[in-house]
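A quick aside before the break. I want you to see a complete sequence-to-structure record at least once, exactly as it would be stored in a machine-readable document. Don't worry about memorizing anything.
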Amino acid sequence: MRAGHLGVRLAVTADEIKAVQGLRYRVFYEELGARADADTSATQRDCDIFDDVADHLLVVDHNLGDGPESVVGTYRLIRQMAAAKLGKFYSADEYDISMLERFPGQLLELGRSCTAPTYRSRAVLQLLWRGIAAYVFHYGIDLMFGCASFPGTDPDALAAELTYLYTYHLAPEAIRPKALAGRYVDMQRCDPASLDTKRVLMTLPPLIKGYLRLGSFVGDGAVIDTQFNTTDIAVVVQTDLVTEKYYRHYERESREIAS
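That is the input. The structure line, written in tokens, reads:
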């Protein structure tokens, strides 16, 4: 799918996946302060075992070329059958997702989303979501989930944001991930009555706001990820509740981008 000189598609070559991993390294480690081990520092690529089974959604800038050099944004997509090859989803290291794994439908885990600094615009984020929408329809996905992140590891600095999400967007119990006991951080960190919800919404990271626009829910408990220098939350989206809105919203936005 195209919007001017930008396009969205899946990675098809090993070099494109390496480009994705290089972009993730630059964003997560060089820019946002993640802690690299010796191998990661040596390769300057963010990679793990899940990359081998995932599909990698790309935003490409055709003005830069048509190969790996054109990759400016990415999202990692892990279907249930792909996770089964490893015996788990990535999120299972932070959350109890057993209730999701019992969900009667096809699951898709979303993660490792990032864009190059000069491409952090509404247009690029919308292209990524258009790609996800097409992927969801193609594979008949019923439920999407994953971890979304706030920068920094001080949950008290995020008291208003975490309290707002827990108060207004907590997932129904049947599909509510819960942070693992050893990593659980209470999201209820201030009096909900004291919240300025309009201000809180303005301070949420764009990715989390995008999830909320799609009718997503959050899990119970935040998790501190010291390696990536983030405070994580679990996000869940039932696609059958938002599919019509999903397409209507992003198709309208795509026309605006094109114009």
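Two observations worth writing down. DSSP finds nine helices and eleven strands in the chain. The chain has a mean pLDDT of 91. We'll return to this after the break.
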